[in-house]
Amino acid sequence: MTTEIAPAPSPVEAPAARPRIFSGIQPSGAPHLGNDLGAIRNYVRLQWEYEAIYCIVDYHALTSLHDAEVLRVRTREMAAALVALGLDPERCTLFVQSHRPEHTELCWLLCTVTPVSWLERTPTYKEKKVNQPDDVNHGLLTYPVLQAADIVIYKASLVPVGKDQAAHLELSREIVRRFNTLYGDTFPEPEAVHTEAPVVLGTDGVRKMSKSLGNTIDILADPDVIRGQVMSMVTDTKRIKRTDPGRPEVCNVCQLHRFFGDDHEDIWDGERTARTGCVDTKRLLAERIIRHYAEARERYRELLADPDRIDRILADGAERARPIAQATMAEVRHHMGLR
Ligand code: ATP
Ligand code: MG
Is the alpha carbon torsion for 24, 27, 28, 33 positive or negative? Predict the structure, then answer.
């Protein structure tokens, strides 16, 4: 008796003219300044040059959030926010991770080539163990494998992300190398693409701005919320008295002025010479952020008032992602000997 081995299904390749990119964002809270300056700006810019696939990663959010209604609401809000900030659903593919179950299937397969020791040394896992000591769930450990699956299922070569994702991206590359060595060349090694603001510090001025750390400036929130968040920012901690000279290089507020106007050198000079105080510089920053996102805030409100439209955009996106994800899975199953 002979065993017939079916030929490998041909993978769906990205057209050479428009290489494929992928990125994910968690619906773990409202989008903040760090998300936009570090990642979303690049999502918007790159959708014109690349075949762009963007995913609201609700499975990832479940590693820290266990409230079904909150997750449902935040997932829709994140979709509305991304469109309001400039994603064009006709131009890019925008969908929800759990609507494409192939991601979790590939995650399992990649788990079988990923040593536990690689995951245990991931900095984000170590941080989460400290930040949520009562909920060190298995998902936190496996998170980077699911992230690798999210990216490579679309054979994306570039991943627009903030610097905080560097270790995860490196792990994705290691997993790809391991897989390709064991089962033959299947996936490209994904590379990160950063903006000019790869790490935006939070209002505490120390840790990176994060939805889960509560140190955010929520760009689409009501102006008064933004004012409150900006006014709470920690500035140069050595500037005690109003007459002390400031150090713009170490002041988070001064650094953020670089992205909201072309006069940051003047603002910095005012700080260095104590011509202006930290409160003035914060007030100005708050007003500029509010103005910069005014149109997006308006679009966000309109979209939220039309939940069916958001759901349609997400359903269309999941359908567009389907053939790519399924073709990769067929190829992977074949390579791994699954019948
Ligand atoms: P969480 O606290 O739940 O992890 P988050 O604020 O870190 O949320 P994510 O959804 O994890 O946001 O990240 C979405 C994208 O935004 C990623 O590409 C990430 O690198 C980027 N990003 C997040 N925070 C920052 C930041 N402070 N500076 C630059 N980029 C950031
Ligand atoms: Mg994060």
Answer: positive
Distance 212 CA to ligand 1 centre (A): 9
Which of helix, strand or coil describes residue 56?
strand
Catalytic residue among 126, 129, 155, 211: 211
Residue whose pair of structure tokens reads 């979209």 in the numeric block? 303
Q: Which two tokens stand for residue 83?
A: 């469109």
Whether 208 is catalytic is yes
Instruction: Judge if the beta carbon of residue 31 lies within 6 A of ligand 1.
Output: no
- Nearest partner of 257 among 238, 282, 222, 280, judged by Cα: 282
Ligand 1 atom closest to the CA of 201, numbered from 1:
27
The two three-digit tokens of residue 242, written as one number: 């109003």
State yes or no: is 241 an active-site residue. Answer: no
The H-or-E segment that residue 326 falls in is helix 307-336
For the chain, helix, strand, coil in percent to 5 are 55, 5, 40
pLDDT in tens, 58-100: 999 999 999 999 999 999 999 999 999 999 999 999 999 999 9
Asked whether 85 and 31 are in contact (CB, 8 A), the reply is yes
What's the pLDDT tens digit per position in 234-287? 998 888 888 888 899 999 999 999 999 999 999 999 999 999 989 999 999 999
Active site residue 163: no
**206-to-105, 220, 237, 318 alpha-carbon distances in Å:** 38, 23, 11, 38
Q: How many CB atoms lie within 10 A of CB 12?
A: 16
Query: 0.85 exceeded by the pTM?
Result: yes
199 lines ligand 1 (CB under 6 A): yes
Coil, helix or strand at residue 89: coil
Type of residue found at 160: P
Report the residue among 32, 146, 164, 208 best suited for mutation to probe ligand 1: largest number of ligand atoms under 8 A from its CB. Answer: 164
